[in-house]
Structure formats: structure tokens, C-alpha cells
Amino acid sequence: MADRDGAPKPNPNPNKPERPPLLKKSKTITDKAPASSSSSHFPAVRRVSSTPPSSARFSSESHTYSAATSTSTSASNDANFGFGDRDYVYPSFLGPHTVRSRVNVKSTSKSQRNQLQLSKLPAGSESMPSNLSCEEGGAKVESNMKPNTKPKLKAEKDLNALSIQVSNPALSGSTSAISSNARRASGNSYSWILFLLKFVCTLSVSHTLYLRNEVSKLQKENISLRRVCSHVDLASAGVMELEEVNTLVYFGNADSRTVSLYMVVFILVIPFVLYKYLDYLPRIIDFLKRKCTKKEEVPLKKRIAYMVDVCFSVYPYAKLLALLFATLFLIGYGGLALYAVGDGSITEAIWLSWSFVADSGNHADMVGAGPRIVSVLISSGGMLIFAMMLGLVSDAISEKVDSLRKGKSEVIESNHILVLGWSDKLGSLLKQLAIANKSIGGGVVVVLAERDKEEMEMDIAKLEFNFMGTSVICRSGSPLILADLKKVSVSKARAIIVLASDENADQSDARALRVVLSLTGVREGLRGHVVVEMSDLDNEPLVKLVGGELIETVVAHDVIGRLMIQCALQPGLAQIWEDILGFENAEFYIKRWPQLDGVPFEDVLVSFPEAIPCGVKVAADGGKIIINPDDRYVLKEGDEVLVIAEDDDTYAPGLLPEVNKGLFPRITDPPKYPERILFCGWRRDIDDMIMVLEALLAPGSELWMCNEVPEKDRERKLTDGGLDISGLENIKLVHHVGNAVIRRHLEGLPLETFDSILILADESVEDSIVHSDSRSLATLLLIRDIQSKRLPNKDARSIPLRHSVFSQSSWIREMQQASDRSIIISEILDSRTRNLVSVSRISDYVLSNELVSMALAMVAEDKQINRVLEELFAEEGNELCIKPAEFYLYDQEEICFYDIMRRGRQRQEIVIGYRIAAAERAVINPAGKSEQRKWSLDDVFVVISSGD
């Protein structure tokens, strides 16, 4: 070897002759070149850095041992050559060179290092270098030297600083194997420490058991020595025998205590062993079964933890059972430990264990180190168990309270009314249902909606209405989920009401259809019928197709539209409908009376002192309801009578009264005259309203429409709704584009010439009830103001043709003159808005959604009433009308109400009520029908007419 200046370096070991230096051979690994190729390659250049090498750079077959104080001439060669950051330099044809890494491996002796080097190098390998050299402190030592002939180096004394750099460029492998070996070497040190601790613990326990066994043997020898003593008297012999018996019992207990101690230690060690080696169990099983599974499996500990997690999540009582098992285990294990270290019986030990678990202060009286340690541990476990028990109990109570507060508990009711959904009609609906159940002492109404239970209860409390014994139960949930429907006992309800949502008509009807599908999916079946509130008449057939015979539909838009038309054509009819539809006054009932079988309808009409018969439900015709039947129709067996009465238990047939039909004016109905009607606003069912007007108005009538829909789009929308505009014979459509809340748009209309003005809830704001009502009120005030300024300049004596043939009864005269000879009907959706409308002018009548709520409540109580309402609301068939008194009597004629009913039958009408001139409201189903009284021509009568 040579120094940096090229001078030869003296041999540090004079006893060993210096061998000439050998050049390291390099080899190109190719598929075609032979192993013994003699072609010379570029020699490897080795670098030794003064800085500590990185542990991340190493190869699988070359280990680098470097000393901190080593100085070598190879560093100078590297510096002269110009390579400072690479360990070896290869020609370019060898391709990319893998960076070699270094690792510091601690060694204890040179013999172990040589064995490690020999074990790493394969025997007989041709790629092994001919000279494997080691450099330590400037001395060169041959690697093929025998271990016993190697000189001891001074640097080996410091094992942490000793390192040898060995280069084997011919052997290269993956870096992952060496890194795993390094981690395994560091892990082995910890495993040896753990093994040493286990060994010490096992040795200590074994030594303890050995000493206890030696004590038992010495005690047995002591007893044997006492037996051979001959100077013991009889008394001593008795004591000896007694001690022997006690000792034998003790030794028997000593053997059982030893077993108990073994069991305690075994049970204590088992969890740690399982936790440590549980993942190896599947591998052991596969090894025993001689199976080799190459796929990666989830560790057994993770699977067990997952199973426990699922068990606690699925089964609600799993936590309680786990706590009970832990308590029993602690009592049993603690009792076994106390028995092993104490001198009492096993039963006493278990009892003490229970007392320590139940009361942590009971262990203060224990004597002895062993019993005290065990008792303290048992008391600590008892405190932990009772803390967990309190936590579980607290969580259970909190969960139950939250469940009750949020409305998640089950409703155990039967024969109740179930309301699905939430809308502004709910207040009026609950009020009507409470009035209907007043006669039976109240009922139960359950509301299921997707709102918080507390919010629903607060909104219901704001109604400030006396429910008269009816209980309203709110539950939070979705009507589309079967579990929530079962929670409210849907199969036991006598009636189910599905409310329309506050969305637009199509979305509301789609949701109602999904609710009906959910109801048909109830496995237990439905006991009662289902009343569905629809928003669009076109969607009604689809819901009936899905629901079948159990479904009764009430189309809100259609009902309101038809009622507005009837009220516009007949002033004061809205108040009549409120009395009939609501349960506060008279309403429809259907019941069978066997004593009336074989009686003609003209006698049935006057057979009820407290009710007014209106029709017959024919049993032979599949239960068809005939309103206003012929007088000659005779009731048959099974037929039922439709009446208007105060309640279903307030009427019954009685004796036939004496009725004097007498003479009366036979005035026919006046002919229909053309009318002019104005629609302010656009509704989605305006085509249906036009068809009703076409059936009710005389030819030559005009319908003006003022809204913001362009004229070119109106015809398309009306045609899409099913209206044949070219087929209209009685009315003519007049279009006016404008906003009904802008004064200058309304001033362009001849408001003083219209017979009736209908202010509709516009389709553009139907999603917002408050906005819709605000527009209706603004339009109403503007129209009234414009009329009041125009009409004084007109002829005040002009009278609408439809009332010109009447003798100007006071009620009809007030109705047409209250708003300057124009009947104004405003559609108000929110019932609270009615309080804002002045009631001084009766023509400005407000028709709200209360009528729809009343109809829903009535159909919910008896689904047969829906057939009656459908016919009375239709444009054909029987209808509710207001007729003047001159059709039935003379002025100041004194007759009873039965006589008027008989005279009405001559006109194919059923008189159901009247309104005298001085009264504010009409009377339906009056009491004292047989009492005589004077009538005036200013009075009017409410009748059910055939409409011919």
C-alpha cells in the first residue's frame, strides 16, 4: 500500500511478511458472457468518507463496516479521480448503477464477523473476490486468515466504534431483505428482554410453589413424629387427634389452595398470551392442516374486535350482558384469589369478593399482605364496574327521554284517526275532528310528519282551541317509511288522512302517490279508509288506480274553484257551505232505519223532527246514493237514509205530522241571462273552472281574464288542460294581459260592468301562502277603490238581469249592492288572513282552505259522504241553491216549515233551511218544523235542486 504522496507505507506487523497488493476483479453480469471471462473491466473505486455513512444505503450481499478513525489511501484516490458521491464507478455500457447503501452492524468479536462473512457468501461462487481485505486503524488483515491466527486489534475493545468495510461488488440483491434483517435484529433484543421477564416471573412462581410444597412435607413429618411419642397421655392423645384432624383438613385445603393459585395465575396470564400471539393462531391451524394460504387475511384480533363492535351496535342489550358477565367474572375470580391466599372456605371467599365489589370500603379489615392486595384489586374492579353501570343506566335514561321528546316512541292506539303530513290546513282539520268526536267524549288523533315533535306540539298549542276531550299525539317520522307507519299503528286506524304538502301541485301529488304506495305495502292491512288531499284534478285517477277501493280523494283546487264559481253566481252560498261542511252545525249522515221499510220518500221527508232527509242509499244498486229522489220511491230492506242533522245521535224517525200543502204561487225559475265575469289571476285548473262556467252560464256570456300570462301561451295551456276553446258555446273568452296588483293595469278594465269578479290565488305564488294572500288583498282593495270612483257616474238604477225577475228580496239586494252591484269573491288560502278582511261588505266574501279541511274531516268520518259532495260540487246533477220566498208562499203567510217542504217537493226541490230578512246567517235544519210562523217575501230559502 502507499501513502497519499506515493511513498510505500511501512508494515505495521513485522512478524508477518507483507504480501503484494492484489487488484480487485470486477465482473459484468450478462446472459451471454461466461463466468470466467478474462476481459479486463474498469476497476471499482472505493471511497471512505469522514462523515458517518447513511444507514439507508446498503445492498443485500455487501456489508460495510467503517471505523470512525480509519484513514485510507482510497479516499485520496477517489478525490484524485473526481468522484465524491459514488462508491463505485462503472463504464457506461454497464447501464445505470444502483447506489449502494451502508448499515452499521454491531459485532462482538472477529470470529463472529468472519462467520457472518462466510455465511453471507455462497460456497464455490465464482463471483467471490480473490482477496477480501479489512482495514482497521491502518492495518490490512486478510479475510481468508484463520480466526485463531488473527492479531487482536486495539480498536476491537470499543465495540460500538468498531466497523469493517467489506466490499463485494459481484453480489447484489434487494434492499428490503437487509432492512428486514436489521429490524429483526432490533426486535430480537426486545423479545429477549420480554423472554427474560417471563422467565423470571415463571421461576418466581415455581419457587413459591416449591417452598409451599416443602412446608407441607415438614408439617406431615411433624405429625408423624408426634404419633411415635409414647409418653403422650389420653388427654394429649385426644388433643393430638383433634390437631391431626385439623391439620389434615388444612393440608386438604392447602392442596386446593395450590390448585386455586395455579388457576389464578393461569387465568391472569392467558389474556396477555392471547393478545400477544392471537394473530398466529390461524397460521398454526393452517400448518397443522398442512395448508398454505397465500392470500392476505385480516388479523384475528381485528376480526374479533369487529365482531364485538357489530354485536354492541346491533343488539341493544349486549352492553348490559357484557357488564353482567364482567361482574360475575370479577366476583368469581376475586373469590378464587382470596381463597388461594387466605384461610377461609371457598364460599366465604366468594362472599367477601361480592362485598368488595358492592362496597369498596369493606376491604379495610383484611389482615395479611396477600389478602389485602387481592382485596384492593377486587375493590378497584368493583368501582370500575359500578362506574360503567351508572354510565349505562344514565345513557339508557337519556336515550329514552330523547326518544320521547323527539317522538320516536311507538303509539299503542286503535280506532284512531291518523294524519300524515303537515300543512296550514291541519289546525282547521283538528278543530273539525274534535267537534265530531265531542258526542263520544273525545277521540285520539295521531299526527305523523317530518318535523320535530316539540315544534308540532307548540304549533298546535298556539291554536288556542278547546279540543273537548280529543287527544292529539304527535310523532316525528316520514310517511314514506313503513317502520314509521307501524310506529303510529297505521293498521289499527279507523281513518287515514294524507295532507297535501306546501310544494307545487305536481310535487305534492307525487308525494301523495308515494304515501299511498307505502300504505298499500303494510303487511297487516288497513282497517280504515284513506282520504287523500290532491292538488290537481288530472292526478286523481292515478292515485285511485294505485289505492283501489280504500282511497277517497278530495281535490283541493277543484273544490275551491267550484265553490268560488257557485258563490259568485249565488251570493251568500259560501256561508251555507261552511255550515253544512263543518261539524259545528248541521252536516250529512247516513243511517239505516228498519221501521221505514215500505214507506215512500214523500212521507220519509217529514218523518224526522230533528233532521231533513236528502236522499237514499240504495242497497240493491251496490250502495248507490241518490240525492233528491222521486216522491214515489219506496224504501226497501237494506236501504239507508241520507239526512242533514246536528249529530248522528240527535235524530230518529217519529210519527207523521199533519201537513197542509195549501195553495202557493207556482212561479217557474226565470230564464238564464248572459253575464260578464272577471278572473284576476291564473290557476293551474282554470280550464276546469271554465268548463263549469260553460255548463252554468247562459249563451252570450263573457269571461274576462286578467293575468300576466301572455295571450299566445294561454291557448296552449288551456288546450293542454283538456279545454276545447273552439267548442265553447255559452261563453266568450276575453284576454287582458296585466298585473292585478298594479292600479293602471286594472283601470284599463270595465270593472263597473262585471256581474262577478273572482280574485284567484295566482299560480306563480302558490308555493307561498302569505305572498298569495297579500296579492289577493291588494287586488281586492284596488278594485273596490276603482269601483267607488266610477259607479256614482253611472245609472244607479241598473240591475243585473239575473235578479230582475225577483221581487228584490232583502238578502239578494244587499248582496248585489254591497260592492256596488258586483259580487267580489277573493280566494284566501290562509285562514288567519280572514281577520284582516273587513266584513262590512258581505260581497267581499273570503273563501279559505277551511272548506277543504271541513270536507276532509267529513269524508274521514264517513267516506260515503264523498259521493254526496262530488255530486253537489259538480256542474251537472243536484246542487245547492238559494231561492226567494216568493217561490213557495205569499207575503205574510203563516205556515209551518213542513208545509214549505211539501211545497218545495212540487218543484222537485228539498228545502233544508232559510234566512229571514233581519237575520245575519241562514239556519240549516231548523228546530220546530211543525210550528206555525209568518213569512215575508224578503226571506230566502236554501234548497237542493236538480239543476234542470
Please tell me about this protein's structure:
With 948 residues, the protein is α/β, with parallel strands linked by helices. The protein is 40% helix and 12% strand. The protein is built from 25 helices and 24 strands. The strands form six sheets. It has a six-stranded parallel β-sheet with strand order 5-4-3-6-7-8, sandwiched between helices. Helix 4 runs antiparallel to helix 7 and helix 13 runs parallel beside helix 14. The protein is elongated, with a radius of gyration of 53 Å. The model is unreliable at 1-14, 22-179, 239-253, 794-808 and 815-820 (pLDDT under 50).
What descriptors fit this protein?
948 residues, 25 helices, 40% helix, disordered N terminus
Query: What general form does the structure show?
Result: elongated
Number of continuous helical runs: 25
What's the Cα radius of gyration? Answer: 53 Å
Biggest sheet strand order reads 5-4-3-6-7-8
How helical, in percent, are the residues?
Answer: 25-40%
Termini Cα gap: 135 Å
Structure class = alpha/beta
Could you give the count of β-strands? Answer: 24
Note the beta-strand portion.
Answer: 5-15%
Largest sheet: 6 strands, parallel
The overall pLDDT, averaged over residues, is 74
Keywords: Ion channel, Ion transport, Membrane, Nucleus, Transmembrane, Transmembrane helix, Transport
GO cellular component, one term: nuclear membrane
Main location: nucleus
Pfam families: Castor_Poll_mid (PF06241), Slo-like_RCK (PF22614)
